[in-house]
Amino acid sequence: MKKQRQSRNLAVLTKKRRSLRKSLVKIYPILRGSVVTLGVKCGNPNCKCANGKTHPSVYFSISKKGRTKIVYLGKGVQAQAEQWVANYVKQKEIVDRLTEVNLEILLSQRRARKHKR
């Protein structure tokens, strides 16, 4: 009875893993980092930004090897970049769930081997 339950549990976990892997492939393209809006001054002494009201500018920020890199994007690709960042977050969540399922599969297989002895 116990062996049958373990086998059923393993089949359910394997099916869950297959489903997660399929959903992982569908989420593309990805971009790891953040889309941020920073205030910048244009340099014109007669502009409102000279008195503190800066112009909003869209950038992509990424940390690599402990250093932050900021790249100007502009408003034209802001929505696309935000979607790619959201895709990355979704993929990361799926990988976390896959890790949990894979660990359960390993533990289930270990238990099954232990009971064979």
Q: Rg to the nearest angstrom?
A: 24 Å
- Number of folding domains? 1
Unreliable residue runs: none
Along the chain, the helix and strand elements come as: HEEEH
Task: Give me the side-by-side strand order of the main sheet.
Answer: 1-2-3
How many strand segments?
A: 3
Largest sheet properties = 3 strands, antiparallel
Mean pLDDT: 91
Choose one word for the global shape: rod-shaped
N- to C-terminal distance: 17 Å
Assign a percent range to the helix content: 40-55%
Global structural class: alpha+beta
So how many helices? Answer: 2
**Which percent range describes the beta-strand content?**
15-25%
Would you give an account of this structure?
This protein has 117 residues and is α+β, with helices and mostly antiparallel strands. It has one domain. The chain has two helices and three strands. It has a three-stranded antiparallel beta sheet. Strand 2 and strand 3 form a beta hairpin.
